Amino acid sequence: MADQLLDKVRDAVEGQIDFEGQRLAELITTVLLGASGIIAFLVGFMAQDIYLTLYISLGGTALTFLAVVPPWPVYKKNPIPWLSPHTAVSGFNINVDGKKVG
Amino acid sequence: MHSTVVRVQNVFGFFTTVAFCVAAVIALSVIVNPQSPSASVQLRNVQVVRGRPHYYSYKKEEYAHIKFNLDTDLSTLFNWNTKQVFLYLKAIYPSSKPNTPPSEAIIWDAILPASSAPNHQNYYIHPNPKKSQTKKPSKNKNAKSKAKRDESPYPRGELHLQNQRPKYQITDITGRLQNRTDVVLELGWNVQPWVGALVWANKVDFGVWEGLKGGVSERFKFPEIKTKKEGDLGTEKGGEKNRGKPA
């Protein structure tokens, strides 16, 4: 019971996502941060107000953190079907260099 | 990007890159902003008196007390990236030894804030000829500072000072100033941006930035020492706190 609880806590803190999710997260980081920087400069320059630039770029960064850092379900759509340890022990013949493993 | 910590590091790392690039573009963007500063400086009155550098000093030195008229239009120096402009008036006179560069000494200065700068006690308050000098102390501190900010009768960067007293009396390293010739007053400034390079006053055009027009007085002479002090030799004291002291 305690072990299960600890596992859940560790999973939540680590927040692992799958490989496709990692590709997506990388893309979203680049696009959101880059766009917020460009928009911040353009809007600030048009309005001739440097505070606007500061606030827009900080807001864009906060949004990026919110979108990318938590392990949202979008990033977990393609889980890898790992072999379970149980099946490995019970029945498969796995040969490594002629030796029987598992 | 597989775990939370790695994603935090990645996002923050790219954020610093973006912030640096945006700052660099802002710093470069000001060169498309046209500048056409102009100024005129006139000498009103100059006296040389003998005095001591401080109360316990045995040494007597000669001090020049220079009054001047100053009219400037520096409003084009304030672009979106300007935080404040440090404006100063130098007295420049040839050195007493040959082959040494002329001496320069600041007799007056002011910090002109941009509208985006938060209020500060050391910002210059333009004297208002229309209002009387006596002010009622206001209880509301915010309202007071706001009112002070809006007190200048002229738009930002425009100064019209008549018979202005200096903030600093000047002396020479030799301690002798009387009968020096070829003295000029010259206006200088330092534009301090939010991000980017500090820019000093210059006389040459650079792209859409025109050089300073005027800003130098005619040549004059430091007179002989007056044995009897004449007129008002006080230095300027005004609304800003720490006036004449390091901020």
From TrEMBL, chain A:
Organism: Zopfia rhizophila CBS 207.26
One Pfam family per UniProt: SPC12
GO BP terms: protein targeting to ER; signal peptide processing
GO CC list: signal peptidase complex
Domain of life: Eukaryota
Membrane topology value: Multi-pass membrane protein
Biological role: Component of the signal peptidase complex (SPC) which catalyzes the cleavage of N-terminal signal sequences from nascent proteins as they are translocated into the lumen of the endoplasmic reticulum. Dispensable for SPC enzymatic activity.
Similarity remark: Belongs to the SPCS1 family.
InterPro entries on file: Spc1/SPCS1
Protein name: Signal peptidase complex subunit 1
Automatic annotation (TrEMBL), chain B:
Known role: Essential component of the signal peptidase complex (SPC) which catalyzes the cleavage of N-terminal signal sequences from nascent proteins as they are translocated into the lumen of the endoplasmic reticulum. Essential for the SPC catalytic activity, possibly by stabilizing and positioning the active center of the complex close to the lumenal surface. Essential for viability.
Upper lineage: Eukaryota, Fungi, Dikarya, Ascomycota, Pezizomycotina
Annotated TM spans: 12-32
Membrane topology: Single-pass type II membrane protein
Listed name of the protein: Signal peptidase subunit 3
One GO term (biological process): signal peptide processing
Keywords linked to the UniProt accession: Endoplasmic reticulum, Membrane, Signal-anchor, Transmembrane, Transmembrane helix
Highest taxon, organism lineage: Eukaryota
